[in-house]
Write a sequence for this structure.
């Protein structure tokens, strides 16, 4: 494991003070009225704030906020491929997903860890089918996603945010990609889970506890990303994917609205 | 993945074949290629397995070591996966060339096993909060012939089944804890892998999907769905890979196939492992890379 | 003019038939035309064709393509080729430069074997060139083998912008020294480009 040389690391055997905290009893996910901890119903998604053109230097950018989950994305390019790579007649996408070091409960390392690398790949594979790559041969587009604050569903938020940023950059796309995730708890589906509702293998050991994230191209009705964790039966998995797709379709007008708003503002400025 | 070059005509041939449930090597869409598995192949490991799936060859060695428990999970052991894409398999893996693929495979394996019912980590704990067994699973790719994820997961399951952990006796003495290793080398603890998952990769070719794609088929497939399926018919991890996308309805079909194939794969794998275990005295070893 | 309708990628614009043609910023799928860009929907009525386009106010993805004119700055000259950074495609400036290369045999169309690279380009020159191929992974291949192509701006050793005197020479107005270059016969249309 490479370590950050610019920081003085503690002794090898050091232990984070958090590990001496009392382990929190897992709280029930919903109360007697079927409401979740933040007062949402099981199938209620947190409100979304979406704004484009937030990074002036970038070709395109977007900021997405879903209560506690805050994601910023910048798109640069198409630009010349820097690395010596094989010649390709198609353009290339490069995705970089990063949690800021302070975005989670525990401090994250400055370098990309395995989860972030995994998310970068998933994000790339979610966006690739939607982009007209043959329009910029030999060049690459860089997508940088930074999670400023993580309160659950970070991957789903990043998918939506980065596809809107790509649109804002004027990269030609077949369709937008919207993301949605859900937490499975027994028979129930908790859509758009918060951090404390997200599945973790430590706390939940029963069957049908897990999470599913779906990236959908709404107008083509094609799923470009799907991932799950936790032990889930096939019937529940299907149900979860379908429910997520439904929500993804509902997100399309949100993105549309925010994009057309920025276009209209642009026109106003230019005239 | 390791690429082969195909012309358009060859691709069309494969796509049309997949549609008619007859693939280039005569298989149906839901058939695996010939699979050979052998356990206890490396004597220096705690457990090992070698798999040969057509011309994909993978060797898995499991080493167990006694280590400190992690503060987050004081009552559990750990399992760690490492994948080594050896440059023997293809020169493209030389240097850091195979790193991305290796990371992808080890991440997927880690996710598939990150589930309490797959492998009981509590059994690996020796002294709560202090000592536990750490299971290092090292996957070595010796030859690449498609379906690397599937083959590695099968080999990992077999190697874990084959793993024997020395039995320790714990004695508490005036605040000190003493560990004593049994003198009998056959006094060992085995892992229960009955509910461990196998990865099933469904490659979308044209409008149909196939399992265990050969390298040629991988070259004409844009999107793959990977499912880690347990014997009980549950999914412990799922992932889409590749630059294509799926129709919403086709995912349902793929899940259906994945369940069927995954369950029968798990079942026949366990049968083979149990029967091999029973005739411990082997007739002969087949060895590597024939 | 009424407020133009704004569309986003994936939005279905209209059905595709013989008198509708998909233009820039659109693509065709299953007999329909969809938008592939965020921008305003424009329709242009031709004689028997209607062109459907999605137009953005700001420039869209811009990459050099084969046969287009580019403006490049020379960075490196050696006897076999010179390297340059492409800074403009057509009349549109690029935000990130692309690497380009002019090989010795692509400098001019006649007497190719007598070309001496140092007598054609010097680092820092601004060149107008045509893209002949996408080249290798590293750089685009450019050519100046036309009268209208070649050096348009160059500074002398004194650091003064030189004046072209023939197709192969430029003169420094300060020292009146001649320096060799592959000079472009600048066309009025290009002057317009340079002004902007």
């Amino acid at each position: 494991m490479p370590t950050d040389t610019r920081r003085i690391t503690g002794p090898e055997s050091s232990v984070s003070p958090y590990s001496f905290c009392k382990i929190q009893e897992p709280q029930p996910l919903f109360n007697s009225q079927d409401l979740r901890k933040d007062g949402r119903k099981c199938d209620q998604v947190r409100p979304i704030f979406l704004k484009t053109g937030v990074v002036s230097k970038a070709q395109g950018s977007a900021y997405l906020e879903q209560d506690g989950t805050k994601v910023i994305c910048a798109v640069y390019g198409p630009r010349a491929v820097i690395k010596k790579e094989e010649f390709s007649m198609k353009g290339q996408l490069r995705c970089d997903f990063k949690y800021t070091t302070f975005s989670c409960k525990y401090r994250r390392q400055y370098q990309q860890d395995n989860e972030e690398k995994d998310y970068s790949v998933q994000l790339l594979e979610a966006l690739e089918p939607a982009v007209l790559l043959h329009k910029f041969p030999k060049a690459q587009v860089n997508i940088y996603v930074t999670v400023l604050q993580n309160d659950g569903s970070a991957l789903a938020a990043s998918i939506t945010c980065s596809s809107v940023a790509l649109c804002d950059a004027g990269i030609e796309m077949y369709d937008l990609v919207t993301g949605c995730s859900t937490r499975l708890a027994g028979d129930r589906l908790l859509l758009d889970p918060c951090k404390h509702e997200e599945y973790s293998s430590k706390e939940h050991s029963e069957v049908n506890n897990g999470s599913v994230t779906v990236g959908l191209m709404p107008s083509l009705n094609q799923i470009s990303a799907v991932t799950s964790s936790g032990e889930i039966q096939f019937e529940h998995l299907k149900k979860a994917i379908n429910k997520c797709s439904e929500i993804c379709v509902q997100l399309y007008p949100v993105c549309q609205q925010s994009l057309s708003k920025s276009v209209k503002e642009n026109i106003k400025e230019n005239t | 993945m390791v690429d082969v070059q195909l012309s358009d005509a060859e691709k069309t041939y494969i796509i049309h074949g997949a549609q008619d449930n007859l693939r280039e090597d005569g298989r149906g869409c839901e058939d695996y290629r010939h699979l050979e598995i052998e356990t206890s192949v490396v004597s220096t490991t705690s457990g090992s397995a070698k798999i040969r799936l057509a011309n994909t060859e993978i060797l898995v060695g499991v080493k167990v070591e006694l280590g400190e428990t992690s503060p987050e999970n004081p009552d559990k052991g750990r399992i760690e996966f490492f994948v080594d894409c050896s440059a023997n398999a293809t020169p493209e893996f030389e240097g850091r060339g195979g790193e991305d693929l290796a990371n992808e495979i080890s991440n997927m394996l880690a996710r598939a096993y990150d589930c309490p019912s797959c492998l009981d980590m509590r059994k690996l704990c020796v002294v709560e909060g202090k000592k536990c067994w750490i299971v290092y699973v090292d996957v070595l790719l010796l030859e690449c012939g498609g379906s690397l994820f599937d083959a590695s997961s099968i080999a990992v399951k077999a190697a874990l089944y084959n793993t024997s952990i020395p039995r320790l006796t714990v004695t508490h003495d005036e605040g000190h804890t003493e560990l004593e290793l049994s003198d009998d080398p056959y006094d060992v603890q085995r892992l229960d892998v009955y509910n461990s998952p196998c990865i099933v990769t469904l490659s979308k070719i044209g409008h149909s999907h196939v399992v265990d794609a050969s390298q040629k088929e991988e070259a004409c497939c844009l999107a793959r769905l990977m499912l880690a399926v347990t014997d009980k018919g549950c999914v412990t991890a799922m992932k889409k890979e590749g630059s294509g996308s799926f129709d919403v309805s086709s995912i349902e079909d793929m899940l259906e196939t994945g369940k069927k194939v995954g369950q029968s794969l798990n079942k026949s794998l366990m049968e083979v492992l149990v029967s091999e275990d029973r005739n411990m005295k082997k007739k002969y070893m087949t060895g590597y890379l024939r | 003019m009424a407020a133009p309708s704004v569309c986003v990628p994936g939005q279905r614009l209209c059905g595709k038939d013989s008198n509708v043609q998909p233009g820039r910023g659109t693509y065709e799928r299953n007999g329909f035309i969809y938008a592939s860009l965020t921008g305003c929907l424009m329709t242009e009525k031709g004689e028997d064709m209607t062109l459907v386009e999605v137009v953005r106010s700001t420039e869209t993805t811009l990459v050099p393509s084969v046969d287009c004119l580019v403006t490049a700055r020379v960075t490196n000259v050696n006897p076999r080729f010179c390297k340059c950074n492409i800074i403009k495609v057509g009349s549109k400036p690029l935000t990130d430069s692309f690497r380009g290369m002019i090989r010795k045999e692509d400098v001019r169309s006649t007497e190719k074997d007598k070309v001496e690279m140092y007598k054609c380009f010097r680092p820092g020159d601004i060149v107008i060139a045509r893209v002949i191929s996408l080249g290798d992974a590293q750089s685009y291949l450019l050519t100046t083998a036309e009268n209208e192509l070649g050096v348009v701006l160059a500074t002398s050793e004194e650091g003064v912008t030189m004046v072209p005197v023939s197709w192969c020479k430029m003169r420094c107005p300060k020292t009146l020294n001649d320096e060799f270059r592959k000079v472009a016969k600048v066309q009025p249309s290009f002057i317009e480009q340079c002004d902007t």
